[in-house]
Each structure stands twice: as structure tokens, then as C-alpha cells.
Amino acid sequence: MKRLSGLLQFMLGFVMGVAILVGGATAVAYMLLSGMNSNPPKPVFTEEKKEETKEEKAAKPIPTTPVQEQPQAEVKESPKAAPAPKASPKPSPEARKREATSEGYQARVTWQSGLSLRSEPTSESTRLGGLDYNTKVSVVGTSSDGQWQRIRLSDGREGWIKAGNISRVE
Q: Is 164 exposed, middle or buried (0-12, 13-18, 19+ CB in 10 A)?
């Protein structure tokens, strides 16, 4: 009987040892895999660092300055450009047309995948359409911060595109 009891103790100890090893290895594997399974932090780009609320954006007027073509092929901003009224967040359509009465200069789209034509000089504004690569446009104004350009298409439509994506043609 003692012999049977010793054999039973050995088997029970062996099974318990294996169970402890398997349980420990499973716990370590779970901890490692669950740490790798979580999503990485979202990258923050410089354009997204200072995000304003929609109310702040609506409260800020975005004045534009028309660009005029000079005889020596230099582009200068007109010193007589009237700033947008501070009482209204968006300039009226009449004021925008008055600001962009100059023909400006001719340019072509240089961005390979084309550009979005926007109703206002913000990325959140309504998309009016798209411009394909190498499309000819007339630049009639620039936003006060220089980040957007007001353009006129050959069919008479006007809108805003992100600056730096076109090149001047003579």
C-alpha cells in the first residue's frame, strides 16, 4: 500500500508541476500578446496641432487680397484692398466679387492627383468640384494667411484651392 501511495504522490506532483508550468507560460504569453494587440497612438501632424472649434472658425473673418499682374511679371498685393467687415464671419458674395475683380495671372495645376475646388479657404468648406493635373486656371486672389488661392476657371466658376499646387504660365 505504501508503494501505491508513493506512486500516487509522484503522479499527482508531476501533473501539478506540469499544470503550473503551462499556466505560467499561458499567463506570460497572454500579457505579451495583449500588449502587442493594442492600437498604436494616433500621430499628430503639424496641421492638426492647433485645431479650432467650428464656432471659433465661424467667428473669424477670412479677408482676401486680390493679386494683380504687373508689367515686369511681378505679383504684388494691392495696398488698397478693403479688409472684410469684422461684424460678419463670412464676406458677402458681392464683397468677394469686388475683391476678385482683377484677372490676376494664368497658372496650371501641378499636383499630380489633382486639386479640390472649395467654396471658402478652409479644408472643411464645401467641395465645389475637382481640378485635374495640368488644368489651366486664373489666379485672382490669395487669402490673408497665404495658404489658399482664389481661382477662376475657364467656364467662369470661382473657388479656393490650397496654395503651392499650381505654377504660373506666361
A: exposed
